[in-house]
Amino acid sequence: MRYRRLGQTDLEVSVLGFGASPLGNVFSVVDPVEGTRAVHRAIDSGLNFFDVSPYYGLTLAEQRLGTALVGRRKEVILATKCGRYGTDDFDFSARTIVDGVDASLRRLKTDYVDLLQVHDVEFGSVDQIVTETLPALRDLQKAGKTRYVGITGYSLETLIATADLAPVDSILSYCRYNLMVRDMDQCLTPFAKENGIGLINASPLHMGVLSSGEIPTWHPAAPEVWAAGRRAAVICKAHGLRLPEVALRFCLSEPSVASTLVGMSTVEQLEENLRALEPSDDTNVIREITTAIGSSLNYVWPSGIINSVEPSGRVETHDRS
Question: Which residues contact 229 (CB under 8 A, 6 or more apart)?
Fold first, then answer.
C-alpha cells in the first residue's frame, strides 16, 4: 500500500480509500457480517482511510462501520460528514451540525473523527457555510471531536468559492476526475496545491458507469455517457483487461490526490480494487478509451441550488449567494 500526506495535516492516508456508503445498502442489500469482514481485510491490507456519512443509508452505513471498527479504531483514519441527512434533507445550521456530529460519534462508537466534512456544499448557501457551518466545525475541532475539517461536493466552482473564503484542511470532490471527466485538474487541483489543501477524489468509477455491473437507474448522467462507458468496457475486454481496474488505476496514478475513495462492502470487491495498485502500463488502452468516449468526455450534470449552462455546453452549478 502507498500513502500520501493529506495537505498540510499530519494524516498519512492510503492512496486507496474505503468508501463506506455501500455498507448502508445504498447500491444493494449488504450482509453486515460480510461488510465487517471487508473492513477488517481492508485494514489488514494496509487501507487506513475510511469515509462515511450519516446520509448513506440514513445512518446505517455509520452504524455498520462503527461496529466493524470496534477494537480497530486506532488503526484507521476515520472521516465522516455533516449537513446532509437525506436525499433532500440539508441543514447546515450550527445547532444541527453540533447535534448531528454527536449522533455520528455514537454510531461510529468513537469520541472523535480524524476528518469532519461539510457534505455537498453546493446545496447550501456559501455565506452560511462560511460564516456558520465551518466555524461550528472549528469549534468541534477545539473540543476534540475532530482533528481536521473539510468540505465535499460535486460543483468545483462552489468548492473553490467556499474554501477561498474559509480555510479548510481538505476538499473532497466526486465524479470530477476519472476516465469520463477530468476537469478537476483545470481548477480545483491547482487551487488546492496553491493553498496547501488536501485533495480527495471519490467515485473513480463514475458512480457505476465504469463498473462491470449495471448502471444505477438513478444515475444523473445522460444516456450517451452510459453508452460511452459500455464502449470503454469493450475496449478493455479486447485488451484482456477489466474496465474497473483500469479506471481505478488511472485515478490512483494522479499524484495531486491524497486518496481515491472507492465504495466497497465485500471482500471480493476489496480484492478487485487492490489489484489496481499493481503496476501496469495502460497508456494505449486509455488513449483508445478517450477516443471512444468522444463528445461525452467531461460531461457534467446539474447539482445544487442554482444551475446554468457554461459557454462550453457543459452543465455546472453556480452558487450566487
Answer: 180, 206, 209, 210, 215, 243
pLDDT in tens, the chain (321 residues): 999 999 999 999 999 999 999 999 888 899 999 999 999 999 999 999 999 999 999 999 999 999 999 999 999 999 999 999 999 999 999 999 999 999 999 999 999 999 999 999 999 999 999 999 999 999 999 999 999 999 999 999 999 999 999 999 999 999 999 999 999 999 999 999 999 999 999 999 999 999 977 787 888 999 999 999 999 999 999 999 999 999 999 999 999 999 999 999 999 999 999 999 999 999 999 999 999 999 999 999 989 985 433 333 344 433 322
| Main-chain phi, psi angles of 117, to 5 degrees | -125, 140
Residues carrying an active site annotation: 56
Residues in the chain: 321
CB 25 within 8 Å of CB 37: no
Using the CB atoms, write b or e for 28-40: b if 16+ within 10 Å: eebeeeebbbbbb
CA 238: distance to chain centroid? 30
